[in-house]
Amino acid sequence: MNLNFASDNTGPVAGPILQAIVDANAGAAMPYGNDPWMRQVTEQIRTLFNWPEAEVLLVATGTGANALALAGLVQPWETVLCHRIAHIEEDECGAPEFYTGGAKLVLIDGAQGRIDKDALAAMIARTGGSVHNVQKGALSLTNVTEAGTLYSLDQLGALTGMAKDAGIRTHLDGARFANACAALDCTAAEMVRGFDMVSFGGTKNGCMGVEAIVMRDPAHHWEMQLRRKRAAQLWSKHRFLSAQMLAYLQNDLWLDNARAANAAGQRLAKGLRDIGARMEWEPQANMIFCRLPRSAHDKAQAEAQYYLMDNAEEPLCRLVCDFTKTEAEVDRLLELFAG
Amino acid sequence: MNLNFASDNTGPVAGPILQAIVDANAGAAMPYGNDPWMRQVTEQIRTLFNWPEAEVLLVATGTGANALALAGLVQPWETVLCHRIAHIEEDECGAPEFYTGGAKLVLIDGAQGRIDKDALAAMIARTGGSVHNVQKGALSLTNVTEAGTLYSLDQLGALTGMAKDAGIRTHLDGARFANACAALDCTAAEMVRGFDMVSFGGTKNGCMGVEAIVMRDPAHHWEMQLRRKRAAQLWSKHRFLSAQMLAYLQNDLWLDNARAANAAGQRLAKGLRDIGARMEWEPQANMIFCRLPRSAHDKAQAEAQYYLMDNAEEPLCRLVCDFTKTEAEVDRLLELFAG
Amino acid sequence: MNLNFASDNTGPVAGPILQAIVDANAGAAMPYGNDPWMRQVTEQIRTLFNWPEAEVLLVATGTGANALALAGLVQPWETVLCHRIAHIEEDECGAPEFYTGGAKLVLIDGAQGRIDKDALAAMIARTGGSVHNVQKGALSLTNVTEAGTLYSLDQLGALTGMAKDAGIRTHLDGARFANACAALDCTAAEMVRGFDMVSFGGTKNGCMGVEAIVMRDPAHHWEMQLRRKRAAQLWSKHRFLSAQMLAYLQNDLWLDNARAANAAGQRLAKGLRDIGARMEWEPQANMIFCRLPRSAHDKAQAEAQYYLMDNAEEPLCRLVCDFTKTEAEVDRLLELFAG
Amino acid sequence: MNLNFASDNTGPVAGPILQAIVDANAGAAMPYGNDPWMRQVTEQIRTLFNWPEAEVLLVATGTGANALALAGLVQPWETVLCHRIAHIEEDECGAPEFYTGGAKLVLIDGAQGRIDKDALAAMIARTGGSVHNVQKGALSLTNVTEAGTLYSLDQLGALTGMAKDAGIRTHLDGARFANACAALDCTAAEMVRGFDMVSFGGTKNGCMGVEAIVMRDPAHHWEMQLRRKRAAQLWSKHRFLSAQMLAYLQNDLWLDNARAANAAGQRLAKGLRDIGARMEWEPQANMIFCRLPRSAHDKAQAEAQYYLMDNAEEPLCRLVCDFTKTEAEVDRLLELFAG
């Protein structure tokens, strides 16, 4: 029984994706994105996003997708507005600063891991102006948020609308894009409506290692290709990225996996509430932050893997379900917690 | 019949490596290099290189391995001495400059794609000195060279020895490390003797996408880990890099593949000479640069894939054999050229 | 009558400093810091700071001094802890990010423009740890603070002590170093006791354009010289920087100027209180942030120059006195405000 | 007697420029380029260059002017084509790489310190193309060249024309712009005709420390202002840069100084030839590279200052005349050499 709830990147590769890799391994293929699979990937994402002119670049890591996307959106002397707990701020060891040439991440607060509208307005109002200040650049939103919550489509629209009005470009960190679509029961096109550049994640949801950078405006394509190569993110045997992404997109695998992960997450959340766990944030997809008595962890941690985030009496724990989590596994974890 | 001679990155993944990927796809594994396969990779490379304290980092691209290795060796105001046709100079879109924060690649000439000893001595003598100059940093050698030739062990020793005497760190771009070992009939330990940091390539020789950065001095390990993460080269599902590299190292697969590629390359070179091709450089491994009449290409290019490097009457063509090339494929290409 | 209270950089050059520039303009002098004045500058600062091994570099701008100092203290993947309203965060257009290669400025709150001890402790506790995070780097304090307040020697000692205990290097932004020394009635040596690197300002206090970067540990001298040159901050006719700094240090001119500026500032603060101004922060040196009714500004702004920082009913205004401000000028401004 | 021939930056500030500094030191002036002198500087340079829309930024160092100008012209993944001995390559400790974010300086040969037309054409032809290569960026020419020779207007036009045809932007390093104008007996407008961005030098020709970055296209003005601030090159007491430059431009002081320096240089060159010195390059302005027997230096170096560039039997020496060099000083140096 697999009781690894540490992350949705600890799980295996989904069967159809592994099969696609195996299938792609026939004979020669031209390298560096000039493989036939890639053309299909681009076509499918254009349709999915309803961005008929979009261009797509594949990379192997989520940090790479985010950092390259931001580098394509902001100048070194500009800002990236993001939530205080955004992955780009907290978990990428400064990759956005590296890739952008030193742009400044400006942290905005907001309950439930969501950027607060008024806080965003206030920050926009005070950014830029004189030559002494860093200037307005981009807004980066994450959905599913790093708190495991969701922005509704209306909330996304409100925030991206404020950005547009201020001449600020918009980026969606979609490391859990599929989980958000599944949980909101919306289309990908609805999700990306207000954005200029999207990191469309695959790795956390059944791929081996592939993320798509999707740019609405094809004018940036050549520059972004050069940035990808210069960043050492251009694969020679690129077909193995393309084949993963293509399999992920086909037959709604991306959505099915996300639905499975979310269902496990929701079952776990309900069970946790039933045993008295205090939710730190409202768990709306496949990731739960909650507090349980320390004693509950002593037993659970002997058998299950997950992270404790602090040393409080009732420590904050993070529990993530990937697409493979079974009801039995979830229930066993709940049993362990219940003691 | 696979007549793709464009590069050794157009070929498939070797069977044992693909199998290792499939086998690794069982259950959960901790991410970011904390997988059990990685520990074995490090152990095996320490033994192979006879560097008992070495540390190893895996990345997915050769450019990533080179750029990170150089970033770990030089300061932004230092130089990287390399051959005029080095991959880091010609084919990485400035990734070394990006990763090092703007270090200067200083180009050194030399016949047959090898750095000339006297030219190196002269450049070392005139580098640095005052505060107005960029300073001495690292020497980067490539074996197999970008010209398809080899440095002998003595030649490597002479050049790295000059560097050490001048306080210059040393890097080996081993994108075709295995091909060089096979062609020189030497051990890996002999190959790396004079180096501080090695890019040990797998992708061009049967892997899907994995390269090892091997640092002799473990003191740089933590810094290099941070650099890798910051460069967005740290995989979450890292086991799929580890498993590739482990399979590559096991049972001498790396050497066997290289021997096969070299044998095909040598068969092709002999055949080309027999039909009157003029060798641009002495082909010593699996890569051939030669000139044939334009008419020879008209027919060949309809059926086979490879690069023409100029528009001369007898254009310079590059032909690369990977580990899958059969005698029949080589002979068919020769037939096409013979017209 | 000079009613420019916009900044302490709108004023003229002090007489003895201008005279020193004129006097230095005799015959030839070796460039790039190899002038005889510079040797004296270094000696005098060593004595003043009681740092017998210190090395000193001169640059022409305060932003240059800060950015270079920080670049000498932190790696690109490290953090600079500073107050939310620090000059390095708010007023340097990202120069610290540029010079450090993308280090992250981490903002800490605290009343009166001073970093709060507990907030610093909390931030130190949560910085670094895993490879996904930016790491501990430096603490940068500003005295006089950007709020016009002071850190006492005890407060400086407490904060720098916490940094040392955590292995964090320390930087003092001393753009108004002299004003702080004068107001605290302490020695320069007492001020710098807990710091590794100091930006010792001259420009705001009577120089034309010169700031000293003072590094306690001479081991960084050569690296810092290279960084200065590479940053294009190394003057060829360097004697004109040295001569300014030397004149500034001689006969306590730096202290006398600061005392004059502070006295004007304190007279202005008292007068403002007398007419009912609300102090935003406690004005402890030569810079005052306060609120007055909008009507008070209508008249004043026709004759005097200073900045309004917001559009509130009682807008926040910043008033700065440089060393030339006379009692008559201060009193005239107060008259204007009194209406 | 001032026998410092080490550089044209070892000399004093010209009288009218020092006087302008003194005169500017009256009362308050708004900082950061918002001083009244600056408006006049811009107007005068527009007229001088016959660039009616040009914008001008002042900085204090020549390296700063060059590095900022190049950063405004090229992307990090582009190239700067320059002569192998260009100042930006040899004498700026990598400042162009730092300011541009790692652009690659591509070195072109050519006799007499001038870029060879055919070598430029060849390099243009082989730059860029695929995503693996750094791309075409800018051409940087230096006049007076670092060899002390001149490009004629026709030569400048031919090279900049080739650049334009290839979509390459053009930069003039005019550290000795005035000396070139004087020697060619041409107008400034003729000199800048083919360029997009010019470093117009003052420091080597009588200023204390001021260089103008002149951009033909005002569209870059705001970006360049931000780059200057971020690079810590924006002066607070900016009037002292403006006043220098204004005095330099007035009454043809820039030209008169250059004529004086050139005349001294030509007198020295003739004298050197008369005593048998071998000219390394044709001295066409105020800088001479020549070889004399070692014995000639033994005596001269005891009394005069200048650089020896190698250790040959007849060492290469560099002799530079600034605008203050008198006939008596030149003749005394010649006497010393003559022994």
UniProtKB/TrEMBL annotation, chains A, B, C, D:
Keywords: Pyridoxal phosphate. GO terms for biological process: amino acid metabolic process. The keyword Manganese does not apply. InterPro entries: ArAA_b-elim_lyase/Thr_aldolase (IPR001597), PyrdxlP-dep_Trfase (IPR015424), PyrdxlP-dep_Trfase_major (IPR015421), PyrdxlP-dep_Trfase_small (IPR015422). It comes from the Bacteria. Homotetramer. Belongs to the threonine aldolase family. This is L-threonine aldolase. It comes from Jannaschia faecimaris.
